[in-house]
């Protein structure tokens, strides 16, 4: 690729990442350091400032064989074709292997159901372009080939993918709709939590609308404009309305406004995670160019709590 006038002076790692030649800026920097990126035929550094007329070439290395073991874990597949898969992730399923979760993940399940996706996008996260928290349910798209992975990554980066959630939160949210625009970063006092007062916070924007108000709770439709870790959970907590069942961000006595109904209290105590569900996913199919939209109904435990709240 030849550097244009408008890209003159940009860092090489940013140039390579923004042109969609690799999956991310971090991968771009790694490719450059490992000699897979050349400028006019010569190896360079990530901070190199490209100049008008230079020829930047990226050689994608052969993917490493996976060490992740396929596992016969049940998946609810909403859509599947030769390019991508959309699943309705169940509560309790971690998306990809990490410390403490080396097996039993969505990736392990995907490799069993779609073995031809091996090696896409990296050794431990084949096909994964976005995530849901372990106990957040709902729609998640997975790429089945490198071309699709690159295009979906670009769409997420450019905010062309629409993700809408259903969230049941404590308290009766007074505004019919609103925007929460607060930066989110790692909580300096607890590395497992995120917060809006972090010195390393990144711009984060959440739009919400109240679908239903119940005694002591509200059902929200949430539209993410950014995709930070725990974004909805952190933003609704900051708003004063944490997600029902959230074991991390729910303050004590958040449920004090709920009706004193034994069945309702029992159902909430029995939850294994937050009532947050990725309800709708819309994107442009990388293979056909067609805009596609999928929806997934609320899981049973979520529906049960809502039914007990409804008059």
Polypeptide structure, described:
- This protein is α+β, with helices and mostly antiparallel strands and 311 residues long.
- 20% of the residues lie in helices and 24% in strands.
- It is built from 7 helices and 14 strands.
- It has helices spanning 12-18, 25-33, 106-113, 146-157, 231-239, 262-269, 300-309, and strands spanning 37-39, 42-43, 56-58, 77-80, 84-89, 137-143, 162-170, 177-181, 185-186, 194-195, 205-214, 217-224, 276-284, 291-295.
- The strands form 3 sheets. Strands 4, 5, 6, 7, 8, 11, 12, 13 and 14 form a 9-stranded mixed sheet that branches. It has a 3-stranded antiparallel sheet with strand order 2-1-3.
- Strand 11 and strand 12 (217-224) form a beta hairpin.
- Helix 1 (12-18) crosses helix 2.
- It is globular.
- The chain starts with 11 loop residues before the first helix and ends with a helix.
- The mean pLDDT is 87.
Compute the number of helices: 7
Principal-axis shape equals globular
Number of DSSP E strands: 14
Quaternary structure classification: single chain
Overall helicity: 10-25%
Sketch the topology as an H/E string, one letter per element: HHEEEEEHEHEEEEEEHHEEH
Spatial separation of the terminal alpha carbons: 62 Å
Give unreliable regions as ranges. Answer: none
| Mean pLDDT metric | 87
Structural class, from helix and strand content?
alpha+beta
Largest sheet: 9 strands, mixed
CA radius of gyration: 22 Å
Which range does the strand content fall in? Answer: 15-25%
Task: Give the topology, please.
Layout: H1 12-18, H2 25-33, E1 37-39, E2 42-43, E3 56-58, E4 77-80, E5 84-89, H3 106-113, E6 137-143, H4 146-157, E7 162-170, E8 177-181, E9 185-186, E10 194-195, E11 205-214, E12 217-224, H5 231-239, H6 262-269, E13 276-284, E14 291-295, H7 300-309
Parallel strand pairs: 6-13
Antiparallel strand pairs: 1-2, 1-3, 4-5, 5-6, 7-12, 7-13, 8-11, 9-10, 11-12, 13-14
Helix pairs in contact: 1-2, 6-7
């Amino acid at each position: 690729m030849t550097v244009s006038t408008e890209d003159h002076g940009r860092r090489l790692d940013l140039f390579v990442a923004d042109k969609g030649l690799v999956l991310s800026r971090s991968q771009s920097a790694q490719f450059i350091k490992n000699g897979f990126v050349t400028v006019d035929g010569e190896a360079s550094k990530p901070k190199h400032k490209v100049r008008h007329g230079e020829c930047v070439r990226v050689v994608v290395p052969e993917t490493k064989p996976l060490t992740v073991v396929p596992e016969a874990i049940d998946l609810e597949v909403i859509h599947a074709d030769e390019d991508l898969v959309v699943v309705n992730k169940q509560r309790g399923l971690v998306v990809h292997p990490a410390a403490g979760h080396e097996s039993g993940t969505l990736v392990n399940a995907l490799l069993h159901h779609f073995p031809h996706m091996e090696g896409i996008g990296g050794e431990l996260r084949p096909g994964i372009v976005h995530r849901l928290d372990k106990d957040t349910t709902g729609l998640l798209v997975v790429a089945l080939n490198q071309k699709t992975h690159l295009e979906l990554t670009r769409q997420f980066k450019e905010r062309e993918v629409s993700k809408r959630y259903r969230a049941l939160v404590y308290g009766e949210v007074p505004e019919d709709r609103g925007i929460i625009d607060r930066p989110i970063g790692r909580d300096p006092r607890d590395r497992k939590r995120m917060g809006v007062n972090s010195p390393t916070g990144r711009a984060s924007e959440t739009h919400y609308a109240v679908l239903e108000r119940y005694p002591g709770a509200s059902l929200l439709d949430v539209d993410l404009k950014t995709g930070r870790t725990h974004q909805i959970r952190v933003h609704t907590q900051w708003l004063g309305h944490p997600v029902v069942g959230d074991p991390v961000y729910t303050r004590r006595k958040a449920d004090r406004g709920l009706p004193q109904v034994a069945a309702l209290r029992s159902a909430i105590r029995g939850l294994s995670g937050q009532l947050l569900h990725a309800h709708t996913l819309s994107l442009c199919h990388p293979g056909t160019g067609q805009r596609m939209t999928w929806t997934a109904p609320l899981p049973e435990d979520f529906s049960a709590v809502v039914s007990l709240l409804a008059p």
